[in-house]
Amino acid sequence: MTSEVRSPIRLLVADDHDILRQGLVAVLERDPRFSVVATASNGEEAVAAFRRTQPDLAIMDLRMPVMEGPEAIRAIRAEFAEARVVVLTVYEGDVDIARALSAGAAAYVLKGMPSDELFEAIIAVHEGRQYIPPRITQVLDQAGRTDLTRREMDVLRLIVGGHSNREIAQELNTTEGTIKSYVNGLLGKLGVRDRTQAATAAIRRGLVKLEEAEKAKAERAALGNDIGNA
């Protein structure tokens, strides 16, 4: 009686960092259970590569240029309803996790975790199961409902960008008193005491991307220089 020989799981690896992507491919290729059939450096490439190779499973970074992970997952699953995706990322905010899972990811693994955990996630998802590590489950369990309005999100982004209430009022064409009301509401919804904690919570949870905050701060500094040189 001969033992059954299983074909390796065909994988697509999408990550915008070349060294990380190449390293991940090398680690996966050392395991006979896996075969990397395509790579991508952004979400748009990932969608095209999935369409071209139709792998058994995609390993997707969360934040990528051109098209981010959740958008790429939605695009893939809109075309291939049974597509299976493992998100592999450094971000562990509850909003980031919820975005990935609602887009259709079946697993959420952090890059700092041991490779065996990623392998376990790949096997589980390939077999049709979901894989959410206890650390990620704990984040989701501890997260409170945020339900921020669009205007509250506008105010929060500007807070993270380092703007004062007066500057936010000018940016949003409203009064400083109105902004103070928004800020007080934000503090309550986020469960924090002050603006600094609100900014920290916004980035940690994935409500505001760190790249957006850095861009806003750079724009604010440039504006200050322009005013000073006028």
From TrEMBL:
Q: Which UniProt keywords apply?
A: DNA-binding, Hydrolase, Phosphoprotein, Protease
The organism's place on the tree of life at top rank: Bacteria
User: PROSITE patterns, alphabetically?
Assistant: HTH_LUXR_2, RESPONSE_REGULATORY
Q: A Pfam family for this UniProt protein?
A: Response_reg
User: What's one GO MF term for it?
Assistant: DNA binding
Keyword Phosphoprotein applies? yes
What InterPro entries is this protein classified in? CheY-like_superfamily (IPR011006), NreC/VraR/RcsB-like_REC (IPR058245), Sig_transdc_resp-reg_C-effctor (IPR016032), Sig_transdc_resp-reg_receiver (IPR001789), Tscrpt_reg_LuxR_C (IPR000792), WalR-like (IPR039420)
Stretches assigned to the Response regulatory domain: 10-126
Gene3D superfamilies from the UniProt entry: 3.40.50.2300
SUPFAM superfamilies from the UniProt entry: C-terminal effector domain of the bipartite response regulators (SSF46894), CheY-like (SSF52172)
> Does Phosphoprotein count among this protein's keywords?
yes
Location of 4-aspartylphosphate modifications: 61
Q: Which GO terms describe its biological process?
A: phosphorelay signal transduction system; proteolysis; regulation of DNA-templated transcription
All residue ranges annotated as the HTH luxR-type domain in the record: 141-206
The name this protein goes by in its record: Protease production enhancer protein
Whose protein is this, by species? Answer: Luteitalea pratensis
Q: State the taxonomy lineage.
A: Bacteria, Pseudomonadati, Acidobacteriota, Vicinamibacteria, Vicinamibacterales
